[in-house]
Amino acid sequence: MARASGELRGASELLGRGRASLENCGRERREAVPAAMSPLLVVLMLAGAAAAAGEALCDGLPCDMDPELRRRVQQVARDYERELRERNNTGVCGTETIPRPTSRDVRNDSLNGIIAANETGTVREYVTVPYCCPGYRRSRSDRCAPVCPGPCLHGNCASPGNCSCHRSHALDRSGSCVPTCPRSCLNGRCTAGSDTCLCNPGYSADGKICAPVCEGGCANGNCTAPGVCKCNAGHAKDAEGKCAPVCRGGCVNAACTAPDTCSCLDGHAKRNKDPSSRICDPQCAPPCEHGTCTAPNTCSCRPGYKKDRRAAHRCRPTCAKACVNAVCVAPDTCACKKGYASGATNVTCVPLCPGGCVNGACTAPGECTCDPGYAKDTRGNASSNACLPTCAAGCVNGECTGRDVCTCHAGYKKDPATREGNRCVPDCPGGCGAGGSCVAPGACACLPGHARDDRTGGCVPACDPPCVHGECTAPGTCACRPGYSGPQCAPVCEPACVNAVCSSPNLCLCLPGHVKDRSSRARNKCVRRL
Length: 530
Fold this sequence. Notes:
Elements: H1 2-17, H2 19-22, H3 27-30, H4 39-52, E1 57-58, E2 61-62, H5 67-88, E3 92-109, E4 115-132, E5 136-138, E6 144-146, E7 155-159, E8 162-165, E9 169-171, E10 177-179, E11 188-190, E12 197-199, E13 203-206, E14 209-212, E15 221-225, E16 228-231, E17 235-237, E18 243-245, E19 254-258, E20 261-264, E21 268-270, E22 280-282, E23 291-295, E24 298-301, E25 305-308, E26 311-317, E27 326-330, E28 333-336, E29 340-342, E30 349-351, E31 360-364, E32 367-370, E33 374-376, E34 387-389, E35 398-402, E36 405-408, E37 412-414, E38 424-426, E39 436-440, E40 443-446, E41 450-452, E42 459-461, E43 470-474, E44 477-480, E45 484-485, E46 490-491, E47 500-504, E48 507-510, E49 514-516, E50 526-528
Antiparallel strand pairs: 1-2, 3-4, 5-6, 7-8, 9-10, 11-12, 13-14, 15-16, 17-18, 19-20, 21-22, 23-24, 25-26, 27-28, 29-30, 31-32, 33-34, 35-36, 37-38, 39-40, 41-42, 43-44, 45-46, 47-48, 49-50
């Protein structure tokens, strides 16, 4: 509060310089700024005086007030309110229990209960003490007191890092309380009969003190002498002589915006999401596939991969040898497509045909291509992968068992009249003879004038009536045995029979009523019986 009061006195001086702008406010307004008065009350009184005089207010102050005076009064009011808040703050963030040695009387009893002696000893007790907030330190009286960087000579540490100077002292830029006029004026001299300090060359008035001037200001530092800028902790001079923040170890893809604080460049983010990291990694959205994000939204492919023309963030694997019926899924690694399996090499996949291909080659998944001389089996099984042999000239009454190889069915045999051997004819094991033809296995069809021989199954000439004493050698033609002749092979008697019938060669049988003539040597003559 002392600091605010000191700045209020500075505001009072500025009020004196601004009297010309306050003439219309009346004597009450000019005298409404005593040195010990609350800055907030000063603002209220100035506003009240202006309102009483019928003048307009701007931000709670007379609109015609000197701009510098207005700024100073508003700053003093803000500082005063801040000091009030800090004053009401005890600096206690909680409590904690700590061991503490304590001296007290110790009563010793004898065995029979009679007091033998009283002694003073030290015992350890646990006490509850305040836990001080950052910027405060616990005192011996167990109170939290604010801490200031320096000893705060000629002043009091009113709040953390805020030294409130005693009367006739003011804070310089180093945070020390230095005497002010009329007592003395550091880096200047007090004018006679006045509290005004006339600053030395290279210095300018800063409230009641003379502060060194550094051309261009002294950002992130303290102007300790004319033209001499001493950088704040965590800062150092850069190539242009300005105080710039220092980040130990440097910042990667980031700018050092505060001591040991790296702020990532656009398109970058902290490594491992660690806010304290000094390394910022480039970001790619969407993330790189099989690659590394080497710059914002720029992916560099890993070895064995190349950029996908359709998606900049995607890297596709490369295979030195082209994959056949397969997809390159990793560097020099092929994965077979559906319906294919690994072949002779690791880059070639061959089609799969369930059950394999008989007499053919699997040329596509589930599809067989027959070898030359073979054709698909179409006998009611459209999904069959079997290839059957073909006979170019056909295979009658047989089965094509090989390329142009005809095997006859049972009961059939190769037709000797066909050179190609692709025709099978019925087989009649005993033959059908010249009078018939084999029309089915073991079945002869006889020509006209021929009949089936039951013994051989063949066809023989037929004679009607049959040849009794001869052999039917042609249809209706008998070949008589010796001693027989004629169409029916009748027996022949030489000489001819008389009154008798030739019943067998040279054997005459007498007619009824006749007997052999014994007088005839030929015995072919019969005479009437007497």
